[in-house]
Structure of ABC transporter ATP-binding protein:
Amino acid sequence: MSDVLVVDGLDVTFDRHRVLADLSLRVRAGEILGVIGETGSGKTTLARAVVGAAPVRAGRITFDGTDLTALRGPALRAWRRTGQVQYVFQDPLRALDPQHTVARIVAEGLTVAGVLDRTAIDAKVTAALVQVGLDPALADRLPGQISGGQRQRVLLARAVALDPRLLLCDEPVSALDASNRNHVLRLLADLRDRAGVTVVVISHDLSSLAGIADRVAVLYGGRLVEQGPIERVLSEPRHPYTALLTASAPSVRREHPIPARALRPAPEHTPAAAFGAGACPYAPRCPFATPACVTAPPTTGDAWQVACHHAGAWRAQLAAGAR
Ligand SMILES: Nc1ncnc2c1ncn2[C@@H]1O[C@H](COP(=O)(O)OP(=O)(O)OP(=O)(O)O)[C@@H](O)[C@H]1O
Ligand SMILES: [Mg+2]
């Protein structure tokens, strides 16, 4: 499977706050990649950087050979008009203009992309609404007149109307009830299976990714700490932070013998003040941290998918009852 999106050494800094640090990851054509991490870990910033809406200080983002970070002015606008990469916002209420009807919202991208024929636009809007499971009769409603689940799908419809090749969905189900949530997740899997769309799903909730993602990338403090096939990561997480996430989510836990309390930070071992900016970001909370974790940040390579100096080894330590 070829890589369709390549993020290489990405650094994003807001004012003087470094939000993403030396982040590299690849998204393969036709897969669903889950991106997980706690609030503030940089998930939204990563997606925004891909669509040119975050201040990239260093690194490169390449989509199918096009260096997106090098695009400026007319070249950037021309690229956006192709609609190949679509970002579905985290917060539907804020992302939707309350004065615009559903039809107008879904048609927005099409107009920008240069589709001017009214009949063609109407047909595409109806098809997109049906595709995301919405009744086309909702086309005349305003965002305030439909439910949260419907608003989420309107955002998705706006994106799929453009036939994107890559869809970045930011917390697409976190505000939804169980039935809407399953529907949206199935829809994303359908887009991958039937239309070959590559999908990145951002979530702070592992259970929503477990059923649909092919691979998962784990962010902590703006760095990638682990990535791999989701089943493998769920059944044998190698980074202590990923292990804590899986241990805290019983519904997705596979055969996981480690109790969450064993993975929780032990303050006496990990005084936060001892850890500097060049350290592993998880070191201040990690019960397995040693001086090596503060002298240099571990990095993930292509083959090595865990950024932890003690990847795997901490398991033996736990098993031996050392802690
Ligand atoms: N426009 C901005 N200006 C300044 N700081 C920002 C901006 N956008 C994000 N940040 C900071 O960057 C960090 C990462 O934010 P981001 O929104 O990417 O996190 P997230 O992983 O998406 O969190 P959540 O799960 O809450 O959505 C946070 O500390 C946030 O305060
Ligand atoms: Mg976010």
Summary: Residues 43-44, 90, 170 surround magnesium ion (ligand 2) (CB under 6 Å). The chain is about 35% helix and 20% strand.
